[in-house]
Amino acid sequence: MVKRALAAAAAMTLVACSVTPAPKAHASSSARTSAAPTTPAPSPTASRSPLPPGPYLALVQSQSTLAITTLQGQVIARQDFTPVPRPQLVNAGPLLAPAAVVASGRVWYIDSGGVVHSLSPDGTVREVTRVPLPTSQVETSLAVSPDAQRVMVMVVTLPQAPVDTGSPSGTFSMQAYTATVGGNASRGYHRDFTAGDQLGSGAQLIGWDTIGPLATIPTILGSQGGGPHHYNGARVVHMQSDGTPGPPLTDPNACSVEDVLLDGWYVCGNPQSGGLEVHAADGSTAWTYARPNDFLDYAFLSPDHNHLAVLGNQDQVITNNGPVISVPSGFFHSGWVNPRSLVGSFPGGAGGNNDVVIVNLDHPGMYDDLHLQGAFLGALSDSP
What we know:
Layout: H1 2-5, E1 14-15, E2 56-61, E3 65-70, E4 75-80, E5 89-90, E6 93-94, E7 100-103, E8 106-110, E9 115-119, E10 125-130, E11 138-144, E12 150-157, E13 163-164, E14 172-180, E15 186-193, E16 204-208, E17 213-216, E18 222-223, E19 236-239, E20 245-248, E21 256-260, E22 266-269, E23 276-279, E24 285-289, E25 297-301, E26 307-311, E27 316-319, E28 325-326, E29 332-338, E30 341-345, E31 357-360, E32 368-369, E33 375-380
Parallel strand pairs: 1-18, 5-13
Antiparallel strand pairs: 2-3, 2-33, 3-4, 6-18, 7-8, 8-9, 9-10, 11-12, 12-14, 14-15, 16-17, 17-19, 19-20, 21-22, 22-23, 23-24, 25-26, 26-27, 27-28, 29-30, 30-31, 31-32
């Protein structure tokens, strides 16, 4: 219910709910065109061992360390970085985009200096482009094209700290930057706005599908805690090539977007029925699911479009024209590795180990403990 309640929050300034970071698991026994980026010297490779077979998982650990691991928990690449500082708000915490994103077999991230990097499974770090960060009161979000040729960065500048989320004053601004990988970042769409414009913290990039970059706008400025939701806004739009917000995928008052895949398929939640709708890239409805006296939420669509991991009266996986699959009690999903495997955790404390785990739908009553901690960013193929 939390996610669809966001659609009714007109000002998108403060809401009493928060994004639950990809939870740590518990195991149980059973302002100008930027300078051209420089290319850092690659790490020595003479003695590098062949990589184990993929796919791999991308995790962010302690907010400042990225890790790429096998499905068995072997860390094959790790990179420390200094993230963009969190803006200062009063009476709420900021709802920020993930610290990094996954695209085309790499992990992409922006650091406190406005430098965009990519990390490969073999440990190679490349500088992608640079964008100016005018103050420490900024929020950044990043999207990368599926072919890993283009990037878009959105920089939202907040008023002077601290910002009172109950009655924010001053001028906000959002500035889009676009670049080809390895090239200069160019200014795109820009807008100054105030709280009266009801844009919250402006546009926040959430991905890039076959049409182009995706973003939430309005985006919720701050949160005082609460239940989970995937995106920090209910209205998801495609962005034009310069970062100008385009039309929404759906009317969030009719069906608010819960998850969008790279191929353009998405799932949205119907606030009237409490059910879910799976849509193809052209917007047509592929299949729906609802059940009496249950409000399904936090839905993640599998890569083959046939399963939905959901929260409801029970944490389950819904199958298109098939049975409902029960997962281990207390399991909290964070995303899909492939059409048969979910990444998640046990945030309630089944064992207290704070580990990331994988549930395979072929054996849904069991899970594999990776003996690693971190927030799941996405899965990487071993052949980008």
